[in-house]
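quick one, 81 residues, struct below
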Amino acid sequence: MSLVTRGAGDHRIRYELARAEVAAELIDETVALLPPESERAVRIVARRGAGLQTARYLAGKGFSEDVITAVVAHSLDEPLG
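---
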């Protein structure tokens, strides 16, 4: 899916599919087949580095707040916020 290859999080993917008038149950099935959002976020953090700028980038890409906090904080080896 091109949204995944472009670094989109689950929220963004759900939004874009709903906007394209894809049925809700098909959206759920599609998202369930994707690699876990946390794994996708880890790859982005590994490429961009951990920090506030990357956290904002992930938020803009539709990653959940929980995933962003967990992945960025883990990469920094310290709690955020």
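The chain has a mean pLDDT of 90.
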